[in-house]
Amino acid sequence: MQVDHFKKAKELINIIIGKGYQAYIVGGAVRDHFLGHQLNDIDIATSATPYQIQTIFEKVIPVGIKHGTVMVRYKGESFEVTTFRSESGYSDYRRPDHVSFVDSIDIDLSRRDFTINAMAMTSTHHLIDPYKGKHDLDQQTIRAVGSPIRRFTEDPLRILRALRFASQLNFRIDEDTYTAIKCLIDMVRKLSIERVTVELTKLFNGDFVDYGLKYSFDVHLFSHLPLFQDHPCMVDQLKTINKPFSKLVDVFVFLNRISVESPSITTWCKTYRLSNRTLNNGKRLCYLVNLYEEEGCSAWLIYLLPENLEQRFIRLIEAISSERIDMHHVQMMRRSLPISSQKDIKISGNDLIKWYPQREKGPWIQDYLKEIERAVLEAKVINHISEIKEWVLRCHPPENN
Ligand code: ATP
Ligand code: MG
Fold it and tell me: In sequence order, which residues have a C-beta less than 8 Å from that of residue 49 and are 6 or more positions away?
C-alpha cells in the first residue's frame, strides 16, 4: 500500500515530465522515505502552473490555487502538487503576503524550513539536496535552511515545527538553530491559534514526546501560549508526560482531571479552536475518567465508553492514575454486556405507562428507563419484559389509588 503510494507518485511525476515540465517528490515525503517511516502525504513540486496541471489530469481539486497548490487524484490516491515558488513577507504571521512562481527547484527548496525538509527526489531516486539535508538526516539534526534568525522571524511557526520534529524524530536541534529559537520564542504569540493547534497536536503525539517537551520547557514555550501562560502549574503537570497523546484534547482532559486549577475542557477547546465534536469527546472522556475513579472498570463504564474512544481512555487512565487497563479485558467485557444501547432494552416508556396507570406522564419515565438500563447491565435484572416488570414494580411500588 505504502510502496504503492510512492510508486504512483513516481508515475505521476513521469506524466508531468512527459508534458515537458519538471517535477519532484519534495519535503516530508523524501524525509520520511529515507527514515523508512509511514508517509502521511506525498507532496510534488513542479515547474507547471496549477492551470497546466489541470489540463494534464482529469481529477484536479483547486485547494490553494493562489499559493500554486492543487490536489491531483491519481489511481485512487491524492497528491498535493505545488508549482515551484518563492515566498516573501509574512506580515500577519499567518501566510506569506506574496508568493511568486519560479522555474527552479533550488529556489523552491530554499524557502523550506529545515534542511531535512528541503530535499527533492526524481522518479529515479536521484536526490537534489543543496542544503545537505541527507547529512543532517543521518546526523539526526534539525537545522534551519539559511539564517535561523531570519527564517524564524519570517514565520515563527517554524519554531513550533522544530520542537515537534524533535518530538516525532528524537532529533537534536542544531546549536545555532536552537539559539535562535530561544531568542525568538515570544514570537509564537503572533501566530494564529489554528496553526499553533496543528503543531501542538503533533508535538504531543510524537513518539519522543518527553524529548520534544524537554526542549519546549527549556525555551519556555508554554509561557507564550494561551491558558498555559496564565496557569504555570499546568506546565508543571506537562512535565510528567512521557508517552504520546494522540489528540490534543486528551492532553486537556489529562490536565483537567489531574489538577483542580485547570481551566474547563470547554475553555481549553474553545481557546485552541477545537471542533464541537472534539469538545464533546473530551467531555465524555472527562466524565468516564471520573467514573473510573469512583467505580473502576465497571460494566456500566464500558457500556458508556464508545468503542472508538477505548484506546484514548486507556491512555488517559494510565497517565492520570498510573493504572494499566488491558485492552483485551475491555473488549471481553464489552462482548459480554447484555445490551449495547438503550434501544436493546426489551421494554419501552409505553410499558411503564401501562404498569403505572395512576401516574401522569413525566420525567419519571426517563428516570425509570435509566434505572432499568443500569440494572440490566449490572445483571440485577434479566432483559426480559416480565422480569423487568416484576423488578421495577418491586423497586417502585405503585402508590395506592
Ligand atoms: P508532516 O509529516 O507532518 O506532513 P511535513 O514536513 O511534510 O510534515 P507539511 O506541513 O506537510 O509538513 O509541509 C510539507 C513541506 O512544506 C515541509 O516538509 C517543508 O518543506 C515545507 N513547509 C511546511 N511548512 C513550512 C513553513 N512554515 N516554512 C517553510 N517551509 C514549510
Ligand atoms: Mg507532509
Answer: 68, 83, 101
